[in-house]
Each structure stands twice: as C-alpha cells, then as structure tokens.
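step: validate -> pass
step: tokenize input -> pass
step: predict -> running
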Amino acid sequence: MKRLVTLAGLGAALLAAAPAQAATLTLAGSKSCYHVGDTLTINGSGFTPNGQASVTLDGASVGTVPTDPAGNFTTPFTVGTLEGIRQRTLIATDAVNPANVGQAQFLGSPLDVIVKPKNGAAGRKLRLNASGFTSGKRLYAHVFRKRYKRNVFIGKLKGPCRTLKARKQVMPGSTPTGVYTVQFDTKRRYSKKTKVWVKFTVTVFPRAGGASVTAGPSLFGQPRLTQTVLFSR
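step: predict -> pass
step: emit ->
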C-alpha cells in the first residue's frame, strides 16, 4: 500500500513539473501572396496567461501583444515594405518563458515595377519586371497628361504573387514633349479609385536634331527628377 502511495505521489510530481503546452502561431488571411499594406490576423495560443508575447518578422521586431487568461491572443498585422519574393517568418516569443515560441509563415512580395533601360529615345521597347499585383491577372500602363491619355496592355500576370517580365513600348516616339504620369495597375482603363498601383513621373523632352528623348525617375532615369512610387490598398 505504501508503494502505491509513493508511485501516486511521484506521478503527481512529474505532472506538476511537465512544461505547459507549447506555443503555436497561426495566420488568417484571404490571399496566397501578400504585399505592403495587406493585413493578416495573427492568432497565438499556449503562452503564459495574462502575460505578453513579442512578435518579430524575419528577426525584426514588429511589436508586443498581451495574452488573455488562457494564454491566447489575436492581433492584426499589416505588411510593411518587402524585398524579394519569398516566405516570411513571424515568430512570437513568450515574455516570461523565452524558450516558449510559436512561428508561422506567409508568402510576401514587393509591389513594384522595374523598368529598363533607364534612358533612351521615346518609342523604344522597355524591359518590364513587375510583382505584387495581386488585385488582377493582367497588367496595364496608363499614360496621361492633361488631355493626353493612353492605356497600354503590358501582359498577363503569373503565379500567386502576380509577376511578369515583358518587353513593351510605353511611350510612343510621337509622344509630345512634357511631363507625364505613368501608372501601372490591373485595370483596363485608368481610374482614380484604383487602390493597387505603382506610379512614375516621366518627362519627354526634345534633343538636338529634333528627336525626342524620354526620361524619368527610375522609369527612364534622370537624376534631376524625383521618382514617385506610391501604393495603397
């Protein structure tokens, strides 16, 4: 009988010494690929009750969240600026027990259009490399200045992060001199209501001999101009 009591006591001691449930982290969202401005929901469980958990993205701190009496938390997470298309890792670390961590991943991409060459005559084809246009399946360039408007179909976007590589003429050789706005988005026609876009300022100016040269920040590259790249959801 005494032996049974000893074993029972040992079992209780082992149970008391057992570590708490390991922390877990899950992500909730409606996309297969995320870019700057997108929002995910982070759900954590298994952390110290009524404590805190610090959250990092690829090793960089993104904030601290409180846990409830059950050791859980739910918090929104807005994606910031990203470089390259790859899996991003979110890690939540228990403030009381740093060895207790949970992690989850999501696929992230920059919202960007890279255009080359950086300078050259108007009318030449440009090499376009786009990514992050998850709002549609086709990419367009909208060129406008006062009453001048031109919509250019660039190509079909591929993959979960909606990427594209193409060679396309954006500014015709006959484009009148002046300063233009070139907006890349997934709408067939330009609209002020479009929420996901990358925008450039482009200048077309004459050169010796009467020919035109197109120049612009990042799109065609002139140091005296300022690149404008804006995006929103």
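step: describe -> The chain is about 5% helix and 45% strand.
step: cleanup -> pass
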